[in-house]
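[job 0412] stage=complex_fold ligand=2'-deoxycytidine-5'-monophosphate status=START
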Amino acid sequence: MTIPDIIIAIDGYSSTGKSSFAKKIARKFNFLYLDSGALYRGVTLFAQEEGFINRLAEINRALKDALAQLDLHFGAEGKLYMGPRCIEQQIRSMEVSAQVSPIAAVPYVRAWVDEKLREFGKKGRIVMDGRDIGTAVFPNAQLKIFMTASEQVRAQRRYDELVAKGENPLLEEVVKNLRERDYIDSHRETNPLRRAEDAFELDNSEMTFEEELAWVQGLIQGKFGIL
Ligand code: DC
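[job 0412] stage=complex_fold status=DONE, emitting structure tokens
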């Protein structure tokens, strides 16, 4: 099945499986996959390493100027780089996860990330996942999907992911972090997480990857009249 050069926007709560789903779509239809959350995580790691977050978790205003010098880009296999350094592993740690939502709520951080995302989006034929892709970054995206799943399923997925990476998390900590992030992401002032009116909702709590792919394939066929 060949599909047009569209932008596919996938939004939803943390650990709903957005990135796995988006990667599968990208592979299936030969699209470029872009993980917008990785950029927020990259800015968070930068802010932590450079001391822009103090012990009270306050964000130093000087971060705004420092962003002008920050080089974050995607390299081979969609991994995130800070200058020459691959930071894919560090940005997935619990430390970064614990501080990324407040950083992502800062308006100048969002403006900085949005500019990068729109630049990447010029290429077309991309699938991008995040919290505000269909509502703010690409409001004209031709296909929008909003993903949800039960809290229990999401927490277990995140827990398994961390364990697979060699971390030793407590399930309660993972649940707490999910709840905090969901709350901050959907209550912040600038472009909070919400379902775009024209987004199709997918609750994948009890779905396999194959079922998810079949669902999106049906959606694309129906929407673009492809046989
Ligand atoms: O998808 P993720 O868990 O890697 O995202 C990390 C954080 O970045 C998440 O707490 C919300 C924020 N984010 C955002 O505000 N807007 C996006 N488009 C993507 C992520």
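The beta strands are 7-12, 32-35, 72-74, 80-82, 85-86, 126-130, 143-148, 200-203.
[job 0412] exit 0
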